[in-house]
Amino acid sequence: MAKKKSSGVNRAKAIRDYYKAHPNAKPLQVSAELKKQGIDVTAQYVSTIRSNSKRQQGEVGKPGRPSGKKADKDAPAKPTNHRKQKVSLPLLVRLKHLTREFGGIAETRAALDALEAIKD
């Protein structure tokens, strides 16, 4: 791809400088004023440069869904298991026998909840 010839003027810098002097100017107004100075820019280009400079300064966030969930302060923190454990068949067989000894799944869960409560 061929390189464009430089006009000698940084158009984006001229737009940012104009907005520093005239912060409430509209893109059409900026385009007209810069054309008077010999800088050929469209209103759409002015708008794009303005939006990008605001984003770089942190004035405008990216639209859309916020990244990540905000934790509910009232809800208890969920424990996270950072280790990935593989459940093997022999381990499941042992769990099945333990569940029978406790009298069922509900009793086993109650025992696990009690264990978790005294763990702290």
Structure report:
This protein is mainly α. Among the domains are: 11-57; 89-119, no CATH class. The chain has helices at residues 11-21, 27-36, 43-57, 89-102, 105-119. Helix 2 crosses helix 3. The longest helix is centred in the middle third of the chain and has 15 residues, at 43-57.
Strand content: under 5%
Number of helices: 5
What is the rounded distance between the termini? 65 Å
Query: Taking all residues together, what is the mean pLDDT?
Result: 81
Shape call: rod-shaped
Radius of gyration from CA coordinates: 32 Å
Topology order in helix (H) and strand (E) letters: HHHHH
Helicity level:
40-55%
Q: Say how many strands there are.
A: 0
By secondary-structure content and strand pairing, the structural class works out as mainly alpha
- Residue stretches low in confidence (pLDDT < 50, at least 5 long) are none
What key attributes describe this structure?
single chain; 120 residues; mainly alpha; 5 helices; rod-shaped
